[in-house]
Amino acid sequence: MKVVFLGGTETVTGSKYLVETATTRVLVDCGLFQGYKWLRRRNWQPLPLGIQDVDAVLLTHAHLDHSGFIPVLYRHGFRGPVYTHPATAALCSILWPDSGKIQEEDAKYYAKYKLSRHEEPQALYDARIATEALELLKPVEFHKTFKVGDLTVEFHPVGHILGAASIIIDDGNHRVCFSGDVGRFNDILMHDPEPLPNVDTLLLESTYGDRLHTTEDPFEQLEEVVNETMKSGGVLLIPSFSVGRAQVLQHMLVKLMDSKRIPRVPMFLDSPMAINVSDIYSEFHHYHKLTAAECARSQQLIQYTHSVDDSKAIAEQIGPHIIIAGSGMATGGRILHHFKHWLSDHRTTVLFTGHQAGGTRGAKMQQGVSAIKVHGEWLPLKAQVRVLDGLSGHADYKDLHSWLAKSKLSPNTNIQLVHGEPNALEALRDYLLQHTSFDVDIPAYMSILHLNNMDEPAAS
């Protein structure tokens, strides 16, 4: 058995690993490259394998950097099964068509304003193809063993987001685990990542390999921001990611309100995608910490705005209120319309709750710019800009060490660090070499790892 690293190496995007035996080929994850243009160009390069020769895709979770390339496979003729957890399949039914729609709109925009070197810019896939690709999804519960060719496969819960799993593959001679994105211990919303059984090789994500999460209580931080904003008579705007982050923010606000730590003011979730995802979190509540009653309570206290007219009506709201809206980095979505209405008011607070990539509006606002451009108009930024730390769904390097320590790994387990930026990969490698007995390597893009005899050179 061998693993070909087609993505997720020396970067936190494009996760894609080909596992091959003499008779079977599977892809573990099939994500979009995102971020820098030189990475996004890889989405357009032909994969170094025959699409029809892949027997199946095994999907760790729904985030597009892990799942968003599957519609491209479908567009090129792949009709094999995509095995994943039922909750992940449900989330993909929202994320893939939305991704296709955005790509369609971007292609039309580039064509209209001649921003592409191509005469007729094309989308990787459109909403129709993404919707058709959903037919490939084959839900599999955690801990259920199944076969793909001569490989035995099993999914293990790993926290992070709803449905996220580590995937263990066994060819009868070697057991390899793909960690996927590992969640945190004592997360507000998700259960702790489940310890692993013994495996011979572990591909371990390293997103936070050089970082530790803050020890501050996020409930106290949120309580302070809300009370200060409401006391001033202002509006609290929270740009939010739709999967995971919007759901935990709703829970925190409702819990603070029910315990009378913050005043009862109107609250709005103004994101159709986040609303749909919240419904899925309610449906699959057995897989996270909230009960069905707690999920329902959020929907009782928070107004969900489905239509554009409902969204516009929020502008007529008088007095202090709270708006959660996409997108999380303020790169698009309905939050921009609320920016146009409220950023010039010094009583307004904009609260960012996640990583802001360089060059995004969110990053610029955190850097203290005096104005931001929205829909061609420069908006003066007089609002307060705050940051709520501690809500990341990724394990930091001490969480990862704890997860490994709780797992039943032998001292001979080989660890390959993936899904991390170079600094994070190197920092986590050094940390694990100092604090564990594992052999730790960092694979390169397009390298090949031969698993059946780890005494021989591992990568080529």
Summarize the structure.
It contains 14 helices and 22 strands.
Characterize the structure shown:
With 460 residues, the protein is an alpha/beta fold. It folds into 2 domains: 268 residues, Ribonuclease Z/Hydroxyacylglutathione hydrolase-like (Metallo-beta-lactamase, Chain A, 4-Layer Sandwich), CATH 3.60.15; 170 residues, Rossmann fold (3-Layer(aba) Sandwich). Helix content is 31%, strand content 21%. It contains 14 helices and 22 strands. Helix 4 runs antiparallel to helix 8. The C terminus is likely disordered.
* CATH-level-2 architecture of the largest domain: 4-Layer Sandwich
Low-confidence blocks of residues: 455-460
The largest β sheet comes out as:
7 strands, mixed
Q: Approximately what portion of the residues adopt beta-strand conformation?
A: 15-25%
Spatial order of the strands in the main sheet? 6-5-4-3-2-1-22
CATH topology description of the largest domain: Metallo-beta-lactamase, Chain A
- Strand tally is 22
Integer tally of domains: 2
Helices and strands, with pairings:
Blueprint: E1 2-7, E2 16-20, E3 25-30, H1 37-40, E4 56-58, H2 64-67, H3 70-75, E5 82-84, H4 86-112, H5 127-133, E6 137-139, E7 146-148, E8 151-157, E9 165-170, E10 175-178, E11 201-205, H6 218-231, E12 235-239, H7 245-258, E13 267-270, H8 272-283, H9 292-301, E14 302-304, H10 308-313, E15 321-325, H11 335-342, E16 349-352, H12 361-366, E17 371-374, E18 377-380, E19 384-387, H13 397-406, E20 414-418, H14 422-435, E21 439-441, E22 448-450
Parallel strand pairs: 3-4, 4-5, 5-6, 10-11, 11-20, 12-15, 12-16, 13-14, 13-15, 16-19, 20-21
Antiparallel strand pairs: 1-2, 1-22, 2-3, 7-8, 8-9, 9-10, 17-18
